[in-house]
């Protein structure tokens, strides 16, 4: 079992990532106030350990908001989680796909895109199947 380590909301595409203590998730839609709405990529999630591994390989420190994900988890491995359901607090997210690192990663720090490429280090994205409020510190686990 893990926990939510951080939450960010992206006000508009390409815009800043606002760190928040809680967020409202709407089933089938997305995070209230976040640019990504609808579709299957309603929430982007990263794993704190995978992020740390990428930075170790890169040899520099980069704020995790540079990844442009909505939620950072601690103690939950996202690798090969496609099709699984993740419970975050009172919400459920069905993992749709691995999130591939894009050119924005190298704009944040040269070489970050390559460092995030292996082992799902860039995270996963999914659709909200049960909405509600998530908070930093909420428990996280996979459904059976």
Any key phrases for this structure?
144 residues; M1 Pyruvate Kinase, Domain 3; 3 helices; 39% strand
Note down, in words, how this protein is organized:
The chain is of the alpha+beta class and 144 residues long. Helices cover 15% and strands 39% of the residues. The chain is globular, with a radius of gyration of 14 Å.
What does the secondary structure layout of this molecule look like, with pairings?
Layout: E1 2-10, E2 17-20, E3 22-26, E4 30-31, E5 43-47, H1 48-58, E6 71-74, E7 85-88, E8 91-98, H2 103-108, H3 112-116, E9 124-130, E10 132-135, E11 139-142
Parallel strand pairs: 5-6
Antiparallel strand pairs: 1-2, 1-6, 1-11, 3-4, 3-10, 5-9, 7-8, 7-11, 8-9
Short précis:
This protein is an alpha+beta fold.
> Which fold name is given in CATH as the topology?
M1 Pyruvate Kinase, Domain 3
Quaternary structure: single chain
* Approximate strand percentage: 35-45%
Largest sheet: 7 strands, mixed, barrel
Poorly predicted tracts of residues: none
The gross shape turns out to be: globular
Mean pLDDT: 94
Distance, first to last CA: 12 Å
SS element count, helices:
3
């Amino acid at each position: 079992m893990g926990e939510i380590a951080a939450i960010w909301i992206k006000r508009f595409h390409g815009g800043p990532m606002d760190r928040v203590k809680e967020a409202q998730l709407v089933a089938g839609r997305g995070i209230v106030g976040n640019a990504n709405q609808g579709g299957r990529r309603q929430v982007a999630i990263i794993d704190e350990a995978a992020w740390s591994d990428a930075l170790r390989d890169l040899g520099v420190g980069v704020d995790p908001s540079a990844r442009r994900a909505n939620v950072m988890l601690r103690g939950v491995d996202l690798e090969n989680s496609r099709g699984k359901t993740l419970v975050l607090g009172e919400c459920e997210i069905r993992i749709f796909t691995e999130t591939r690192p894009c050119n924005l990663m190298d704009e944040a720090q040269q070489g970050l895109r390559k460092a995030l490429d292996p082992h799902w280090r860039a995270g996963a994205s999914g659709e909200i199947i049960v909405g509600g409020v998530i908070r930093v510190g909420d428990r996280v686990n996979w459904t059976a």
